[in-house]
Amino acid sequence: MIEQIVLLLSGCALALGCFFMLSGAVGLLRFPDFYTRMHAAGVTDTLATFLILGGLMLLAGWSLALFKLGLILLFLFFTGPVASHALARAAQHSEWKLSGSGSRGGKRGPAEPVSAPAEVAEADALNTDRV
Amino acid sequence: MRYTLSLIAVLAFIWLANSGLYTPLLLTFGLLSIALVILLARRMQLVDRESQPLHLAAALPGYYWWLLCKIVQSNLQVVACVWRSVFSPSESVISPTHARLRTSLRTDLGKVLYANSITLTPGTVAVAIEGDEVLVHALDADGIEELRRGDMERRVRVLEE
C-alpha cells in the first residue's frame, strides 16, 4: 500500500518535472532576447530539476543513491546561480549591456543591441574585403 | 580550528556517500584525499568564516524553506508567461525591465546570499553588484517591485546579524 503511494507520488513528480523542463525549453525558444531567455532557462534550473530529482529520490528509497541524488540537487542549486551570473556578466561586456540607470523597455527592450545593423554592415564590409 | 574540523566532516561525508565501498584500502585512500584537500585549502587560506558559515547553520534551513516556496511561486509565474506567449503570440505578455536596487546589506556574505537568491528565483536575475547597488533584470515590473518591498533583503539581514 505504502509502496504504491510512493510510486504514484514519484510518478507525479517526474511527470511534473518533465512538464516544467518542456516549458523552460519552449520559453527559451519563444522569448525575444538574451536576458528574458535566461529567465526561461531558470525554470529548468530550479523547479524542474528539483521535481525530477525528488521523484528519483522517492524511487531510490533509503539507500546510498538517495544521498547521491541529494548531493546532485545541492550542487545544482549552488552552481546554477553562478552559471547564470557568469552568463549575465559576460553579456554586460558585450553589446547587450544594460544601460546604467534603471529603465523600462517594451517587449524588445534596451537589451537589444542599438547599433546592431551598423555593426553587421561593417562586418559584411570586412568580409567582402577579405574575399 | 573549528572551520577545519567542519571541512573535514563535510569532505568525509561526501566521500562516504559517494564511494559505497568500505574496505580498509579505500577508506585509507579517502583519508589521504581529505588530508590533501585540507592541506591545500589551508595553504590557499580558504578555511575561514566565509567559506564555512557555521554561524548560519541554525538560521539557514528556515531561510531555505522560505526561498523554496518563493522559487516554486515564481516558477509558476514564469511558466504561465511562457504558455501565454505560445497560445496568444500577438499580445505582449512580458515586459522586461531592469533596475539598480540599493541594498543596506553590509557584509560580502550577505550581499552574495542576496544576489544568489535573486538569481535562483526565475524571473529575476542579479547581473552585477557594484558597491551597495545590485543590478537586477526582471521578466516584468512586478519582480522588481517585489524586491523593492524588501522582504527577501530583510530575511537576509536577519541572517547577517
UniProtKB/TrEMBL annotation, chain A:
Domain of life: Bacteria
Keywords: Membrane, Transmembrane, Transmembrane helix
Any GO MF annotation of the entry: sodium:proton antiporter activity
Bias kind Low complexity: ranges: 111-125
Pfam families from the UniProt entry: PhaG_MnhG_YufB
Ranges that cross the membrane: 6-29, 41-63, 69-88
Region (Disordered): 95-131
InterPro entries given in the database record: PhaG_MnhG_YufB
Keyword Transmembrane helix carried by entry: yes
Descriptive protein name: Multisubunit sodium/proton antiporter, MrpG subunit
Biological source species: Microbulbifer marinus
Taxon lineage: Bacteria, Pseudomonadati, Pseudomonadota, Gammaproteobacteria, Cellvibrionales
TrEMBL record, chain B:
Cellular component per GO, a single term: plasma membrane
Manganese as UniProt keyword: no
Protein name as it appears in the record: Multisubunit sodium/proton antiporter, MrpE subunit
Transmembrane segments: 29-46
Keywords: Cell membrane, Membrane, Transmembrane, Transmembrane helix
Keyword check for Membrane: yes
Organism: Microbulbifer marinus
Domain of life: Bacteria
Pfam families: MNHE (PF01899)
Its membrane topology: Multi-pass membrane protein
Localization, UniProt: Cell membrane
GO function terms (MF aspect): monoatomic cation transmembrane transporter activity
Similarity-based family: Belongs to the CPA3 antiporters (TC 2.A.63) subunit E family.
